[in-house]
Amino acid sequence: MSEKVLMKGNEAIAEAAIRSGCRYYLGYPITPQTEIAAYMAKRMPKIGGTFLQAESEISAINMVYGVACSGKRCMTSSSSPGISLKCEGLSYLAACDLPSVIVNVQRGGPGLGGIQPSQSDYFQATKGSGHGDFRMIVLAPSSVQEMADLTSLAFDLADKHRMPSMILADGTIGQMMEPVELSDTMHETHYEKPWACTGTNLKREHNIINSLILKPEILEQLNIERYKKYEVVEKEEVRYEEFMMDDAEICIVAFGIASRVSKSAIVEARKQGIKVGLIRPITLWPFPSEPIKAAADKVKSFISVELSMGQLIYDVQLAEECRKPVYLCSRVGGMIVSPDYVLNKIVEVNNLGGEN
Amino acid sequence: MVVFKKPHALTDVPMHYCPGCTHGIIHRLVAEAIDELGIEGRTVGVASVGCSVMSYDYFNCDMVEAAHGRAPAVATGLKRSMPENIIFTYQGDGDLAAIGTAETVHAASRGENITVIFVNNAIYGMTGGQMAPTSLPGQITQTTPYGRDVTKQGYPVKVCELLSGLDGPTYLERVSVDTPQAVKKAKKAITKAFRNQVEGKGFSLVEVLSTCPTNWGLTPVESLKWCRENMIPYYPLGVYRDKGAEK
């Protein structure tokens, strides 16, 4: 049994988190994700959970760190400028191998930027979410349904691999309303957490959760071990969608709202006889390099459609090993690519015929 | 007959503190309080960044190390998710009163049911003796080589006085450990700060005036004297808030 309801994307994240066993939400208001906090403030007290409005994003992420140390499922959410403030905490969460879920409903930047949708935190989420060598699992929903489903997945992956996972959404998907099916099967999967600091009960040695390692040979080894874990994640957790790729000569790569607009443009381009398809990364890290690499054998060119000045495009080029040209189709600052805008780019690229 | 022994709540790991530093005394007082209240098995401590960062090795209870200044936020997360556990932070002046001022003020303001042990030695010890938010006017440090000039570097932060302006805290007391009598009083205050939490009374903070012979450039004995003659007059000892005692 499951129920179908009409929800905002942000609310779907909150409800899915609760259904996945999250009873601790620590946050700080920022547009365009505040509905998550509002939803949690309303629901958590009714189900024995904790909603806490922190004094800053920095404090909120450190409260998440505290809850995560107890082994309980917990979440924070914010939008771009707020995520910058959380980056210190993300580094510590990763360094201490603490499962946690962080939501970024992106808005235009840099600086205070605007409050309209953007995808310009792609680098930050996938490459530089804080100091030091570390990764986060980054999931990119493209519908309200996926806001729910990927949130639930984010909790499972965080627990399974003992690392922070991020939902990298954008203001469009956060704010828009769509029917969403909330599965009754969504639940908290049990993971043993012998590392948690829950008190020794005088029955075991004390647990220490710490990231200060002063001996370089030990710190190096810990980094190497952590990257072995990341290799497993890269092997097991890649998720993506292919759309009209069977006979495609042009391959669009896009995620989130940009992928949805791209699909409309692809359908229109097909009507004009242009063979174009889409590879949509669902996990931005680990990145679906293999299907893009495989596509490079068949297509004449790629188009990276994104709401940033060209960030995703680098991963596309790396994945296809620069064998085919990759063109950028983007709008930024809170402006969104329209289906016509993408279609024009498809036509332009089609006319080039795959030549640089 | 055993007349003196190491508290169970302390491990056997040799401490790294400099000779004459009073962190060792304060660690012991915290451990004695934990022993006496019988709470070691359900206590989780939060170490902070500074000289006491490695206190996670010295306390026998579960320990979490927090980012610089964030211990009260981390403790909040721990306490909210494990209300039956006893959560304490052990923080220095730079951690608590400079980089972590917001976390301190707001945890206190929320009346989080946690215990904060605040060690004030008026200097950044770990990084080699720079000005702390609590360095005294005129005090010479690495970053105030001509003495702390209050017209340029501002005045010291008086944490107990600052927090006593809030409705949230339950218990605020400033103590010192410069004499055996003072150590006894400090022990009483620290024990009370833990007992308050056991009894669900709310936010308790004990500020302990401490010494830093290495960075003050004094002998251990001179340091205790300097604390007595310079710090205590500026940071008066006593109870700044005790909701339990208010009728």
Shape of chain B: globular
Summed up, the helix count of chain A is: 12
Radius of gyration of chain B: 17 Å
Beta fraction of chain A? 15-25%
Care to describe what's here?
The complex is a heterodimer of chains A (356) and B (247). By secondary structure, chain A is an alpha/beta fold. Chain A has two domains: 2-189 and 210-236, Rossmann fold (3-Layer(aba) Sandwich), CATH 3.40.50.970; 241-351, 3-Layer(aba) Sandwich (Rossmann fold), CATH 3.40.50. Chain A has twelve helices and 15 strands. Chain A has helices spanning 9-19, 34-43, 57-69, 80-95, 122-126, 144-161, 171-175, 216-236, 256-271, 289-295, 312-319, 339-352; strands at residues 2-8, 24-27, 50-53, 74-78, 100-106, 137-139, 164-170, 177-183, 208-209, 240-243, 250-253, 276-281, 283-285, 301-306, 326-330. In chain A, the strands form three sheets. Chain A has a seven-stranded mixed β-sheet, with helices on both faces. A five-stranded mixed β-sheet of chain A has the order 10-12-11-14-15, with helices on both faces. In chain A, helix 1 packs across helix 2. The longest helix of chain A has 21 residues, at 216-236. Chain B has helices spanning 23-37, 55-58, 71-81, 93-99, 101-110, 150-153, 159-163, 180-198, 213-216, 220-234; strands spanning 43-47, 62-65, 86-92, 115-120, 171-176, 204-209, 238-242. In chain B, 55% of the residues are buried. The longest helix of chain B has 19 residues, at 180-198. Chain B is globular. Chain B contains ten helices and seven strands. Chain B has a single domain, classed as Rossmann fold. Chain B has 247 residues and is of the alpha/beta class. The interface between A and B is large, with 38 and 37 residues. Strand 9 (208-209) of chain A pairs parallel with strand 2 of chain B.
Summed up:
Chain A is α/β, with parallel strands linked by helices and 356 residues long. Helix content of chain A is 40%, strand content 21%.
